[in-house]
Design goal:
single chain, 113 residues, alpha/beta, Nucleotidyltransferase, domain 5, 5-stranded mixed β-sheet, 3 helices, 5 strands
């Protein structure tokens, strides 16, 4: 019986209103602007999953961020940002995509940045 090897799709996520999502495989990287609403985020991940070839699996990596949103920003900004990260995590969970939170230094080191 031949061994079937699963290929991997990676979803890199920079959370936040000005963030984005990049889908990577061995052939290409497709970056997109962060979807505007939680429903749009869910639809985006559903679309990725629905077009995934049978021999592929995927995993998401969300950039781990702190609570600082900028000088002079109200606490509500921090809350809204955290809520957005929660929306991303829940959309991935709903689509059956495992995710991991990674500090910027770790992914930047892996890419030689």
């Amino acid at each position: 019986m031949p061994i079937i090897r699963k290929l991997q799709i990676y979803i890199g996520i920079d959370p936040g209103k000005n963030g984005g999502i990049a889908t990577l495989d061995t052939h290409s990287a497709v970056p997109v602007k962060m979807p505007e609403t939680p429903a749009d985020v869910l639809d985006y991940f559903r679309d990725i999953k629905s077009h995934l070839p049978i021999n592929y699996s995927c995993i998401a990596v969300i950039e781990q961020v702190g609570g600082y949103t900028g000088e002079g920003q109200p606490g509500s900004s921090m809350f809204k940002f955290g809520q957005g990260v929660g929306h991303l995590e829940m959309a991935l969970l709903a689509c059956g995509v495992p995710s991991e939170s990674v500090p910027p230094r770790k992914w930047q080191k892996a890419l030689g940045i």
